[in-house]
Amino acid sequence: MRIVTARLNHETNTFSPLATPLAAFRPLWGEEARAAGTGSATALGAFLAFAQARGATVAVPVSAHANPSGPVADDAFEALSAAILAAVSEGCDAILLDLHGAMVTESLDDGEGELLARIRAVAPDVPLGVALDLHANVTPGMVAAADVIIGFKTYPHVDMAETGAHVARLVGRMLDEGLAPHQAWCHPPQLAHTLRMDTRVPGPMADLVAATRAMEARPGILAATLFGGFSLADLPEAGASFVVAAESAEQAHAAAAELGAALWSRRAEFVYDEAPLAESLAAARAAAEGPGIGPVLLLDHGDNCMSGGTCDVMDVLAACLEAGLDGIVAGPICDPDSVAALFAAGTGAAAEIRLGNKVALPGFPAQAPLALTGRVASLGDGSYVVTGPTYTGQRFSMGRAAVLDTGRARVLVTEEPHEPWDLAIFTQNGIDPRAARFLVLKSRMYCRPVFEPIARAVVECASAGVTSSDYRLFPFAKLARPAYPLDRDVTWGPR
Ligand SMILES: [Zn+2]
Questions:
Q1: What InterPro entries does the entry give (predicted)?
Q2: How far is CA 372 from each of CA 335, 350, 414, rounded to the nearest angstrom?
């Protein structure tokens, strides 16, 4: 038995100006891809374990993952898909893919749908199972091409391997028992907000994921997933949906419709109404003067690295300085020019920089860089080892890093956009984040496991970046309308 498995992940923010060339994926091919995937807590890891348990010959043409950014370069998509297609064309008994489900390329709105259709063209009858991210924008093309699609049930995503194992189990039953899954997709016209998808807290997301688990316990239902979707993508199908696999088509459709109706009845709870920035800063100031120890975390969700943000929008830091706050630590802010200027000045030297607001955001008003003067407090290579719970033990690089101390704020400036995965982004650069009064991070979710425990309070702050929570800022053109909550008076019912 020969199994082809591969990993290809990208969440595309179609409004992001950040390019996504092949190099952004740091692709691993063949043996290197297999070695990296083996034992990893990913769907690919589970697929490899499945193949090994069956004693199958396994081909891993590629494992590639890029951080969220703008549309994928056409030549990158072609190179990555060609590797998978070539492996499938050699003949195989099963195909197991670890995809994201929200990949848009320069020329294709539905990257995964196109890849799966190409695979179907050369392997029409081979069982094809797909694991997707909870933030997938599922399309009819994906559902039609794959035998089984299952997504993560947790956000933050801690069940990637479990999801892969579920997909593999069903594909195993297709091979062994002739199981023939029928899939149904139900897509209420809803752009759900990422900040309303945390499955760890009580709320609509946790309830509806519990409903999918209850659905899976019913006889005849093989899998049920709530996809929260990724709203920062201008394509017709962007938004939340359900995919159900069942032993009969009727049952799959009925179950998907039932779940879709449940989501629609709670649509208002998936809306995130952001507070004006001035209000957030007033709340932060009050929290700093209140009880507790540690900094107040200010999370800039409008310019979030892990959703395609440029990490150079200066709204929040500028407003903090204007409001007279002090004891500020902020970063990482991506500005290679300022890093070069600070390195040229040297440690301890006085420096004057014009920080951020340099990457043009199509459709958004241009803003001037923030003029800052201070002293170069530290210079470093920007690499560190994660001690936090996500990516524990991995070494990450932010590009070269420099800290400018303005007196009221210490600002960490880096050459690359970087999610604050660990306290080490600051401690490696001479800053103790625990001692800050206000800690400004360009993050919405992934910083939380590490930074929340040291913080006295968390305040979400709005900014006009390409991951803004205010969907009215985005020039949607292809999105199917009406779409709630952009359009508030929408009537909908599952067909
Ligand atoms: Zn996700």
A1: MlrC, MlrC_C, MlrC_N
A2: 13, 11, 16
